[in-house]
Amino acid sequence: MSAHVPGAGRPSPGIVTVARLDAASAWRRYGATDGTRTPDPAAGWVVLSERLTHADAVDRWVRTERETTAAGHADLAGALIVYRLAGSLAELVVGPLLDQRRVVALAPDRFAVRFGDAARVDGVAVLGPEIAVLPDDPDAGRPGTTVVPDEDALRSAAVDSLVAVYQPLSAAVRASAPFGLRGMWGTLADHVAEGVLARARDRGDDAGRAWAAADAVIDALAARVPLLRVRPHPQRVVAGGRRGIYATKGTCCLIYKAEPLDPALPVRIAAARRLDAAACTSCPLRSDEDRRERYARHLAGAGG
Questions:
Q1: What is the DSSP string of 242-263?
Q2: Which residue from 57, 88, 55, 61 is spatially nearest to 74, judged by alpha carbons?
């Protein structure tokens, strides 16, 4: 979504930045408005600050997840909310940082999401986007831009945006669901790493440089947020004549709990089989060997 009308003048640098991200994103949709209007609630749009302001709205959000995807598990419901938002937020902030050397300035009252079935996030919109840029950016000095001196300052601006949105989100969800704050911040770090490496694989970029860029963002985030203690780590894989790096999560998202246990098996065996069948490939609860085999199969089939 964009508020820019052809012929109405040059779009703002912020709107252009978000549009470039949308064009580069593999599956999430991003848009922006000029700040004079908000997305239509009738179309499923919710401004995050409005959702977080009301405890009953957050409770309903948790309840929707619990009664649908989370299969009755309250902790998984909380994990799913932050998981869905963390992925979109990480791409919205880190994508332009790495691809455009720009950072979209965010806050809950400028961050809107469009919900689909079962609380799925179908789209993200930035209301009146402003951006941080470097001195050599062609739009430096234009309205809606803040010029920062160097790459470190730009990375700091990225952390500002991540924290501005994710801190109130995590606090509100934690008050309504039994999923811990450390796990929530670990989930955000996981999405930063996974998203950057996935983009590098899709584009054929150098995986080592991509990991270093993601790790630098996570370093800066961890320095700002002491609750971020468990981080993703790189898993290097060779398969099919290719070399790659995958991010192994530091935090389990609990999605395996949505798979029912087989009542015909002893609980220990049923739980192990459920984990093997339903946990993410990058789950820290899997063994290194298991993850490596799965990553190798994916890497061998890349581009095939």
A1: EEEEEEEPSS---GGGGSPP-T
A2: 61
Q: Would you give the DSSP letter of residue 110?
A: G
Buried b (16+ CB within 10 A) or exposed e, 220-259: bbbeebeebebbbebbebebbeeebbbbbbbbbbbbbbbe
Does residue 72 contact residue 66 with C-beta atoms inside 8 Å? yes
In angstroms, what is the C-alpha Rg of the chain? 20
Structure tokens at 167: 């801190």
Q: What amino acid is encoded at 55 in this protein?
A: A
| pTM of the full structure | 0.92
Q: What is the pLDDT of residues 15-40, one digit of tens each?
A: 999 999 999 988 789 999 887 677 78
Question: How many whole angstroms separate alpha carbon 222 and alpha carbon 211?
Answer: 16
Greatest alpha-carbon pair distance for the chain in Å reads 68
